[in-house]
Specification:
single chain, about 350 residues, alpha+beta, 10 helices, about 45% helix
Length: about 350
């Protein structure tokens, strides 16, 4: 089986305004693609008869409808499934793989596979430049290979058949100058092939799909920024209260305890006044790192505001919460801290005790 076929610079992260601008730019790009798809009158389809043109036009109309739906999709996984479902409706095929590109590592990682050998493909990592898929990614050029198994560029995914006859359409997914991934569509068998109109439709689909995939990533980054403290990398005030509300509801349903540990730094204003805000920031970052190394994997650590931190501890009773409050990590900073631990059970009782 072909790949099915195979394939440190320091950058300033985009600001939220740039992210939103990219999102709007992508939306305009998808709208342009939709207009092109709706207006397009391509070459006759397979049988070349009078009904072929009408069928092709209907395919583009259905594709435009699909993207109107996809634009509203929030989940990247659901988005990938929707893309695959639409392709299956529009272009009959036997196998499909969508790769996500990691340009910094020059790797293609399969994120959606519909194939008999899906387990083997999902475990593989394809390098740029290797195999037909890697060739398309490196050169950013789509490929139509109706005898893909005989193509000199071919490489085989480990664990899959090496000599399986197949036809392949391989389309790099490009958006805003960035390689988002690669889309591979296969037909199997000695007589398997794709027509030029199939190739054109998959390319158009890939152009729009790349923009939508890029939008989904921007949404995810914006959501991450909305719930993350920029200085420490911890969850922020908003996420703390949203997660605490959810954990209290879950604990009430499951008749479990949930503990909350609050911590702040004594005389922190004086640190800023005497030593400057840069020194204060260093203290906050060091404390965040110390707490991250101390809490359990299931705990939710947040910077609630200023010098105040909170730890939500699901399924944690009062003795365990107090033990965590009193624990001193070997790398713990030397400044004085104030800890307030509390727990809440299903009956709503609450206890707490300050320690210094």
């Amino acid at each position: 089986m072909t790949q099915r076929s195979e394939v440190p610079a320091v950058l300033r992260p985009p600001t939220p305004a740039e992210e939103r601008s990219g999102f709007d730019e992508n939306a305009q790009g998808v709208s342009a693609e939709l207009k092109l798809l709706s207006d397009r009158r391509g070459p006759p389809a397979r049988d070349g008869g009078p009904s072929s043109l009408a069928g092709l036009v209907e395919s583009y109309r259905r594709l435009a409808d699909v993207f109107h739906e996809v634009l509203a999709e929030q989940s990247l996984d659901a988005l990938l499934d929707r893309i695959a479902d639409a392709l299956e409706e529009l272009i009959p095929h036997d196998s499909l793989t969508i790769y996500e590109a990691d340009e910094s590592q020059r790797l293609l990682v399969p994120v959606l596979v519909r194939d008999e050998w899906s387990a083997e493909i999902l475990q593989s990592r394809q390098q740029f430049g290797r195999g037909i898929t890697g060739w398309a990614a490196e050169r950013r050029e789509p490929v139509l290979a109706n005898r893909a198994h005989l193509d000199p560029r071919v490489a085989v995914v480990p664990g899959t058949p090496a000599d399986e006859p197949e036809a392949l359409i391989c389309v790099p997914l490009l958006a805003r100058g960035s390689l988002e991934g690669v889309l591979n569509v296969y037909r199997l068998g000695e007589d398997a092939s794709f027509r030029e109109d199939d190739f054109e439709l998959v390319k158009r689909f890939g152009d729009a799909a790349a923009l939508v995939l890029n939008n989904a990533k921007i949404r995810a980054r914006l959501e991450h920024q909305a719930q993350t403290d920029a200085l420490t990398g911890l969850y922020n005030h908003r996420h703390f209260h949203e997660r605490l509300r959810a954990e209290l509801q879950r604990a009430s349903r499951a008749h479990e305890c949930v503990a909350v540990l609050m911590l702040d730094i004594d005389d922190f204003k004086r640190v800023n006044d005497v030593h400057g805000h840069c020194a204060g920031d260093e203290i906050l970052v060091a404390l965040a790192e110390t707490l991250s190394a101390t809490v359990r994997g299931s705990d939710v650590l947040c910077r609630v505001g200023g010098e105040e931190f909170g730890v939500i501890m699901p399924a944690c009773d009062e003795p365990s919460a107090r033990a965590l409050a009193q624990r001193r990590h070997p790398a713990s900073p030397s400044w004085s801290s104030r800890l307030r631990a509390g727990s809440r059970s299903r009956s709503g009782s609450r206890s707490g005790r300050g320690t210094r």
